[in-house]
Design goal:
Blueprint: H1 9-12, E1 28-29, E2 58-62, E3 67-68, E4 71-73, H2 82-85, E5 91-94, E6 99-103, E7 108-116, E8 127-134, E9 137-145, E10 199-209, E11 214-218, E12 228-236, E13 247-249, H3 264-277, E14 280-283, E15 286-289, E16 293-295, E17 299-303, E18 309-312, E19 316-317, E20 328-329, E21 332-334, E22 343-344, E23 346-349, E24 352-354, E25 369-371, E26 373-374, E27 376-379, E28 382-384, E29 390-393, E30 396-397, E31 399-402, E32 405-407, E33 414-417, E34 420-421, E35 424-426, E36 429-431, E37 438-441, E38 451-453, E39 456-458, E40 466-469, E41 471-477, E42 480-482, E43 491-495, E44 502-509, E45 512-514, E46 519-520, E47 525-526, E48 528-534, E49 542-546, E50 549-553, E51 556-562, E52 571-585, E53 590-593, E54 595-608, E55 613-615, E56 628-632, E57 638-640, E58 643-644
Parallel strand pairs: 13-14, 14-17, 15-18, 16-21, 17-23, 18-24, 21-25, 22-26, 23-27, 24-28, 25-29, 27-31, 28-32, 29-33, 30-34, 31-35, 32-36, 33-37, 35-38, 36-39, 37-40, 38-41, 39-42, 40-43, 41-44, 42-45, 43-48, 44-49, 45-50, 48-51, 49-52, 50-52, 51-53, 52-54, 53-55, 54-56, 54-57
Antiparallel strand pairs: 1-4, 2-12, 3-6, 4-5, 5-12, 6-11, 7-10, 7-12, 8-9, 8-11, 19-20, 46-47, 57-58
Length: 672
Amino acid sequence: MSRNITRTVASLTAAVIGLSPVLGGTAFATPGPAAAPVLTRAGLDPALVSGRGARVDFAEQEAEHAVTDGTVLGPDRTAYTLPAEASGRQAVRLTPGQYVEFTLPSAANAITVRYSIPDAPNGGGITAPLDVTVNGRDRRAMTLTSQYSWLYNQYPFSNDPNAGLLHPDWWITECSCVPAATTPAPTVATPFRPNHFYDEQRLLLGKQYRAGDKVRLTVPAGSAAAWTVIDLLDSQLVAAPKVELAAANVLLFGADPTGRRDSADAIDRAIAFARRVGLKVYLPPGSYQVNRHILVDDVTIVGAGSWYTVVKGRQTDLAAPAPDGSVHTGVGFYGKDASAGGSHDVHLADFAVEGDVRERIDTDQVNAIGGALSDSTVSGLYLHHTKVGLWFDGPMTNLRVTGNVIADQIADGLNFHTGVTDSLVADNFVRNTGDDGLAMWSERTGNARNTFDHNTVQSPVLANGIALYGGTDNTVSNNLVADPVREGSAIQVGSRFGAEPFTGHLWITDNTTVRSGTYELNWKIGLGALWFYALERDIAADTRVTGNAFLDNTYNALMLVADWPVKDQYSITNLHFKDLRIDGTGTSVLSARAAGSATFENVDARNVGAVGVNNCGTFHFTPAGSEFALADLGGNDGGGTTGAWLAPWELPNTITCDDRPPVVAPPAPSAW
């Protein structure tokens, strides 16, 4: 496996358009037909993640396990390459005329294809065809696009592959310098840091097919795309459209299901009528054009199912910036602002929201679902191509977000921002976000008593799968997090971004992470699958990390950091690790780069690539040992190349600091 994390960005981005090094990894032809469909969950044998993650109604098949005459890319975890952003860190590249063929594992009438095609030479994307046949017939055509992928440069990124540095006054790792303050100024190759390569598209097949039928994806000759990369195929049996007879049908209020005319005003009229007479609002099958926010309060809006009812809109320039700083609006369902009392008793279910967001502008409110929603539910939605799938600005309480699919966002999948309490996020599937997949951010006002449970987060391009920034008595349980790409972890507990402190307790229980713990671009070190980061405050809440499995960790399984400028100000204490299984670390089980303490009980590890505890403390290297102390409560077994991972000689605070230990790629995870 390629682990050369120090490759320069110039070599990765020298020729992004066409067949370029950005494809990355090892290329080889797939040997022979597969005997049977290979089902995975987050690129793993489903048995390894049983009981974890979202309970979904589709089957995942990775292209690298299918029959193909194309080229398998990867595995590779190096940022800015196509394998790194692929599920399982592998994908299949097709050139015109080539195919990849999947065998259906069960009856299906719908598929989702995750893919990448090149950008246009000057940005903005292209479109290209993909043929879909079943059993060599029943041909259907898909039109793929790269208009919603391919970002470049420094945060908050650019759509222009030829642009110079957005922030020449920032330190960059490529030259280990501040370009604007360096003489002579370094030359930075363009396109600079290409990322966010993938998109997905759904297709109803028009009839039900049986298990064993063959779905072939073929790039037709003459395609405008020099290459098409297929990451995976999800297949499922979609039920017939749902019908609500006793409801305010938006067609009766002038909505256009063909999408040719704007339906926002008609939906508003249906909502007003439904509130007066106590009915639901029903969106029948169709595509409804909506180019602004739909304000929702004390109303239930249901569709025929997310495959049939699509609310789709363009991003629209505002004549003048809004008070919140937005310069655009777009399709979205929003509760009232918390300052106006927020919205209550809102129930949104069973439709899709398709946005048109192609750039990241943090002040823009161009999210699929937003505002403040108390005593409300959001379920069965498919949220695609918006900035954030669901962004909630509290204070607000008692929201349930369940059973949604959130894909291909420019920023977060979901964020509980400011004073969200007593709320649940469960059974949601999140893939390809441009920032944290799921986040609780206690800016100014703390979040409290919230639970993220049984969610799946795959391939966040930047930042973390699940992020907790302050808060009280919150729980993260039974989640599956896979393949964060850069500058983040599967799960982060961070005192940062102006967050209120962690207080009360924090439970991180029965989660599974895989291929996590990325390379931190600025620090030039590997992170942990679980990362505690004390940047602005101590982290001292009663934190219990129990029953988790950390699989195939790129670097460390666990990492504790106080940033260098504050390493003598903030500490991480009251941590308790129990009943963990750690299968494979590129470096250590625990890397401690902060003052503080933790206890360990029944933490079993195997295939550990470096010393089990990499204890740097606050880098003062005192005669008394590290400033971080470990307590062995028993049952801590296993290890790796250097012996037992928690050996007596490492306790309580032996200095074992290796700032950048060599990476030893572990074997693939297996049953314990």
